[in-house]
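Orange carotenoid protein: structure, please.
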Amino acid sequence: MTYAPTNSYDQGKQALKGLNVDDQLGLLWVVYTRLGSSITPAAPGASGSEIAQGLFNQVKELPHEQQLQVMREIASNANTVISREYGSLSPETKLAFWYFLAKGMENGTIIPMPDDYELPPQGQSLLGQIESMEFNQQIDFLRGAVLPMGAEAKGGAEI
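Here you go.
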């Protein structure tokens, strides 16, 4: 029997699995550039933003190609230090981290999307679904999408 997600959060957890890592990153970038200004105030508390900013700053200090590699590692659950740090974050802090990355991509501190990048049809379909949702559903969908990313932190408590 196939599991059919029933709410936006569960849909988000399932949705990105059908996309390759670069298209997952591309979809997150498109969503955050279109919805980002409304996502961040709704997502984390002040401490979550500070934690997300700290992890973002670690990525920002890397050369552009390494920044892309770190994002790929997080999206593919690679067992790396930054991916484990990300994996220990709360869902709201994870949302804030991706928001900071999208803002960094816009201002050039993070490697930008290629000018010729286009979402594949499956990504376009997901984007349409997200855009048709009400705001709270969009946040839940994104929370579900970014939650499974990152490596599991061994023996650590969730931040």
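Notes: Residues 1-5 have pLDDT under 50 and may be disordered.
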